[in-house]
């Protein structure tokens, strides 16, 4: 029977999606299961049951098989994407020995606060958590055989083989050699963890096959090739057409992330502030990805809407439309707001003291002024991060937006105006899942990054309006000044 489909598994924090794609990376059928709510056994902790994650994945796969009518024998390969970071610990006998620790868990901060770091000492959060575990749960620490990420755990259960991929290694990896850089473990007194690191592969490599046991549980065919898959950010980039340098993907989701594609040999200048930008391995050895983030994108918008605009939310519900459709009606035809909104509700990766706030409100300020400022503040703050990316990589030729916020016409047009370039909206709203399928397509030889690469469908293209661009140039400068002034205030505020 002809192998015509790829099974992509997207392990998110709140939902597990599984989908069949054809060999041209076009979605055929999709199924999803809600994940267990985050467990917080103590303040700052964030965990999920590892066995339950696997059970939910199995239910999603079986649901997809039933819903689609596609036979397991028609599946050419299985691939993955998933939330990056986190500590999913497995014993020698393949069992989960601790709850899955999510990337938002703050126990690594507790450890880092107690360490007097030297200037060249950089301990990633996954390693810092292992230091916490060694000190507080030594019995568990001694049992760890594999240190995995969330998608790696699902792949392990499917194949019985432990791997990590170059886009999401548990500790830093050298993009030139493809090997782990274990200096951070040695500096942290965690030499024991070196043996816990799973073998590294690239996201578009076949690393194992479905076992007989997993086949019986999931309904898949034993021996089906399994591809490593990628960090969800990198999967979103490739799913949005990121196959060469000069491509930028803006993920308008929870965090507000920008992902630039760079050729492997591109020399990148260092960052001015630690945490300001990160470099990840691409889906093949040919590429790497450079990212920035404002730390809280759509989550900030949702928080403010829930706090300050409940009447609008109620009206939207009564009319049977989304809150964003209602807001677009309210804000139609308005020029830029003079109110400055800083969207750092959860701090940033390079300044944990950063806060959200509104500036420039007067007795004449309307609710619409504030609403527009929310949109504007998130967009302009992300564009300031994009400027930093361009200083490291190059000016971007192609800009694509994906994520839930990509459906906002206000944001789409605003990004085009601020960046003074066309901005494309992905037709496929699940760019991460599509990226996982593309990893499998490359692994199975259906296409390469250069030849036959399946570009995404385009839902809309927003063109810049020159009459607005000049106003946004002034806004950008104002936001830069506001951040510099606020940073000094935030630094003093944290001691109160």
How would you describe the overall organization of this protein?
- This protein is an alpha+beta fold and 496 residues long.
- The chain has 15 helices and 24 strands.
- The strands form eight sheets. Strands 18-19-17-16-22-23-24 form a seven-stranded mixed sheet.
- It starts with a strand and ends with a helix.
- The mean pLDDT is 92.
Defining key terms:
496 residues; alpha+beta; seven-stranded mixed sheet; five-stranded mixed sheet; 24 strands
Short description:
By secondary structure, the chain is α+β, with helices and mostly antiparallel strands. It is built from 15 helices and 24 strands.
Number of helices: 15
Let me know the number of strands: 24
The biggest sheet, with number of strands, parallel, antiparallel or mixed sense and barrel status, is:
7 strands, mixed
| Coarse shape | globular
Report the average pLDDT across residues.
Answer: 92
Given helix and strand content, the structural type is: alpha+beta
**Neighbour order of strands in the largest sheet:** 18-19-17-16-22-23-24
Radius of gyration, whole Å: 23 Å
| Uncertain stretches of 5 or more adjacent residues | none
The amount of beta strand, in percent, is 15-25%
Distance between the termini: 68 Å
Helix content: 25-40%
